[in-house]
Specification:
This protein is an alpha/beta fold. The protein is built from eleven helices and six strands. The protein is globular, with a radius of gyration of 17 Å. Pfam families: GerE (PF00196), Response_reg (PF00072). InterPro entries: CheY-like_superfamily, NreC/VraR/RcsB-like_REC, Sig_transdc_resp-reg_C-effctor, Sig_transdc_resp-reg_receiver, Tscrpt_reg_LuxR_C, WalR-like. Residues 149-214 form the HTH luxR-type domain. The modification 4-aspartylphosphate is found at residue 54.
Length: 218
């Protein structure tokens, strides 16, 4: 079971999200928080697989809570679940270490798939958010970004480029291992090396480089 911490200041929203996640049969909400400070405290106490956070919450906003959870509870993946998809929120969330950004207006399956993906160590963005990240998130002109990405990727070995392409396609470490006929520990080592060589903090940022470099389709 995927253990989830759910944080939202509206009890009815939490009830709806809990019901959706429960319908998938593989997710358990182990704790609920009504504000960001409580979310951080519960993350430290329960060590869930995924912390699913709203952005606008009292006492401590979700973005600040996400950064604190990433910093102090390293075994917990963080995903934002919000009605707000403004660029500044997306940029700060992903820059702060979140590996998922989901919209409440999305399909229920999208929520289940997103939680499953980030729990497995992959990244997941709602389509609207993904388009923003691709079009605006890296700054500068599109051709300049593509040239920069290709230059960065050229420093990788052929196997590392292959792994990066699969990360960009949204595959988790176990899925990459199965695709390349490798053990999962070897894939983890490759992913860590790729992140280090590219100078990025997480799989979301690596996926952006992979897309810009042409390793994955639009």
């Amino acid at each position: 079971m995927i253990r989830v911490l759910l944080a939202d200041d509206e009890a009815m929203v939490r009830a709806g999200v809990r019901a959706i996640l429960g319908s998938g049969g593989e997710t358990e909400v182990v704790a609920e928080a009504g504000d960001g400070r409580e979310a951080v405290e519960l993350a430290r106490a329960h060590r869930p697989d995924v912390a699913l956070l709203d952005i606008r919450m009292p006492r401590l906003d979700g973005l600040t809570a996400a950064e604190e959870i990433v910093r102090t509870v390293p075994g917990t993946a963080v995903a934002m679940l919000t009605t707000f998809s403004e660029g500044a929120y997306v940029t700060r969330a992903l820059g702060g270490g979140a590996t998922g950004f989901l919209l409440k207006s999305g399909d229920p399956y999208e929520l289940i798939a997103g939680v499953r993906a980030v729990a497995a160590g992959a990244a997941f963005l709602s389509p609207k958010v993904a388009r923003y990240v691709i079009d605006e998130g890296l700054g500068g002109g599109r051709l300049t970004r593509e040239a920069q990405a290709r230059a960065r990727v050229s420093a990788l070995s052929p196997r590392e480029r292959e792994v990066l392409g699969l990360v960009g396609a949204g595959l988790s470490n176990p899925e990459i291992a199965a695709r390349l006929h490798l053990v999962e520990g070897t894939v983890k080592a490759y992913v860590s090396a790729v992140l280090d060589r590219l100078g990025v903090r997480n799989r979301v940022q690596a996926a952006i480089v992979a897309y810009e470099a042409g390793l994955v389709g639009p």
